[in-house]
């Protein structure tokens, strides 16, 4: 049952993040894209730029601050590498971003969270 609750909570957080990013001018290309290397929560675009986004949601800020670890970002970067041909156009810049969500706080968009 805990797994189902976590899955539902993650979907809500991803929806909040996608809506927040749309308000910032991003076009959402896809959500919850799975690859053999891992999953990317959101794929988004602005002219000349494609970003692969990891969404993290925690019940408090302290837990949220610890939620982006190297192992998770390595998986997102590996998945993004597999997805670049599907979403990027020649000449596009590519980056890995994150959106952090905690109750009572606005979503926080972190750019360039991974430098491979």
Automatic annotation (TrEMBL):
The record's section on InterPro entries has: Restrct_endonuc-II-like, tRNA_endonuc-like_dom_sf, UPF0102_YraN-like
- Entries under Gene3D superfamilies matching the protein: 3.40.1350.10
* Gene Ontology MF annotations: nucleic acid binding
- PANTHER family cross-referenced by the UniProt entry: UPF0102 PROTEIN YRAN (PTHR34039)
User: Which family is this protein grouped under?
Assistant: Belongs to the UPF0102 family.
Provide the protein name.
Answer: UPF0102 protein HZF05_18415
Q: What is the lineage of its organism?
A: Bacteria, Pseudomonadati, Pseudomonadota, Alphaproteobacteria, Sphingomonadales
């Amino acid at each position: 049952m805990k797994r189902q609750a976590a899955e539902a909570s993650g979907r809500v957080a991803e929806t909040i993040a996608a809506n927040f990013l749309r308000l910032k001018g991003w076009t959402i290309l896809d959500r919850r894209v799975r690859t053999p290397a891992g999953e990317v929560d959101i794929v988004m675009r602005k002219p000349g730029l494609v970003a692969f986004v990891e969404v993290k949601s925690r019940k408090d800020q302290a837990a949220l601050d610890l939620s982006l670890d190297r192992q998770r970002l390595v998986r997102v970067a590996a998945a993004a590498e597999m997805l670049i041909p599907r979403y990027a156009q020649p000449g596009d810049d590519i980056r890995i971003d994150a959106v952090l969500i905690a109750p009572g706080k606005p979503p926080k968009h972190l750019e360039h969270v991974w430098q491979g």
